[in-house]
Specification:
This protein has 362 residues and is α/β, with parallel strands linked by helices. It contains 14 helices and ten strands. The protein binds nicotinamide-adenine-dinucleotide (NAD).
Length: 362
């Protein structure tokens, strides 16, 4: 790995401001610049960001998939130029997955790269997008088509920031946590599956840390995604296709929820590849639990996405996914709960069968 980031987790009991103990550690220079989710302009819960804003050191970014475009990156780059930011300086990016993707990508290409801090503020970003250095934007309707893999220098996690998240965004992060349990930590999954409803982030700090550790471990093993890191894409080829189709129809579909719907199909497919009845049952049980969580918290979105899905269109988008070539779709499959394999060829017939298996009651 070219650079192993410094990972700092602020203790839950801390009485300091959110992120402050990580940002203001003795002997470490604070970030010179900041790109932050506009949410914190309207809800100034992070004192350090508010005081940087008073000094005109913050670029406020509108979160959301529509912001993940070249125009937005260009605006960030122009702001850096006009502000006189230079290569010897550092920048903190504060936000959920969309703000981190835009901000860290811009910071990676500006003057060939600034010193970068990643400060995730959503559950999804805490366990996934804030870690790993893979940042990019959407292009021509295709998810994350342009980007870089360069590690942030420092990742500061402070789960107290998650208290203000909307239930839908908690669900979205919970889905990525689920993925991490299913692909790489069966104990995590066993603990998660006991929850009837989606818990508030304040109750699950230990589980959030465990889910983040799965991502850290896979990134360290394979920074450039030539092998094992690919399993983080479990449920993502289908999830990304659903997101692209939703964007085309001008519908909102949070990333984690799209991934949840994708995982349902991938779990049915994984079960169909096994001849061990116990493993099959485990996988179908996992699919049923995920489906129950999704319907409980996002019934309308799930129904509308499933009912409007056109499998031919989804398949065409899946073939364009950057993990594939235009002939084949290669997917991640579970061999058992907690263990996954990558680059497994998925046929259109299998996709259709497993889609109907997963979503038939809709
Ligand atoms: N780079 C990676 O490795 C990676 C990994 C997984 C996902 N992603 C990307 O992440 C994106 C999804 O991220 P997301 O779910 O965080 O979405 P997001 O960034 O759009 O945030 C979701 C919502 O939460 C709000 N928000 C942020 N912090 C908050 C807080 N503390 N309290 C209240 N509201 C808050 C945002 O303003 C937004 O409305 C997708 O674009 C996906 O492709 C990237």
């Amino acid at each position: 790995m070219n650079l192993k980031p410094l990972y700092i987790t602020v203790p839950f009991e801390s009485k300091d401001g959110i992120f402050q103990p990580g940002i203001e550690a003795p002997g470490r220079a604070k970030p010179d610049w900041c790109i932050a989710d506009k949410f914190f302009k309207e809800n100034p819960t992070i004192n350090w960001v508010s005081s940087a804003a008073e000094k005109k050191r913050v670029f406020w970014l509108q979160a959301g998939e529509q912001s993940k475009c070249l125009t937005q990156v260009e605006q960030v780059l122009k702001w850096l130029v006009k502000s006189g930011a230079h290569r010897g300086q550092s920048i903190a990016v504060v936000g959920g997955g969309t703000v981190l993707d835009i901000g860290l990508f811009a910071a990676s290409i500006y003057q060939r790269g600034l010193y970068k801090w990643s400060l995730p503020t959503t559950l999804l970003a805490s366990v996934d997008a804030g870690i790993g250095g893979k940042n990019g934007i959407n292009f021509m309707g295709l998810k994350n088509y342009i980007g870089t893999i360069t590690q942030p220098n420092i990742v500061v996690s402070d789960y107290r920031v998650l208290e203000t998240l909307k239930p839908l965004d908690v669900l979205s992060g919970w889905m990525e946590m689920t993925k991490h349990g299913l692909i790489g930590n069966s104990n995590l999954w066993l603990k998660m599956k006991r929850f009837e409803t989606i818990p508030k982030p304040g109750l699950i700090h230990k589980l959030i840390e465990e889910a983040a550790a799965v991502k850290q471990r896979l990134v360290e093993a394979d920074e450039q995604e030539s092998g094992p890191r690919k399993i983080l894409n479990f449920g993502h080829t289908i999830g990304h296709a659903l997101e692209s189709a939703a964007a085309e129809q001008k519908k909102e579909l949070p990333h984690g929820i799209a991934v949840g719907l994708g995982m349902l199909v991938s779990l049915h497919w994984s079960a169909s590849r096994s001849d061990n009845q116990i493993l099959q049952n485990d996988m179908i049980e996992a699919a049923e639990i995920i489906k129950r969580w999704l319907i409980l918290e996002a019934s309308n979105q799930i129904t509308s996405t499933v009912e409007s899905a056109n499998l031919n269109t989804l398949w065409a988008i899946m073939k364009m996914d950057k993990k594939n070539n235009t002939q084949h779709v290669r997917e991640v499959a579970l061999t058992e709960i907690g263990h996954a394999v990558w680059n497994q060829p998925l046929s259109f017939e299998e996709f259709k069968t497993c889609w109907f298996g997963a979503h038939s009651e809709h």
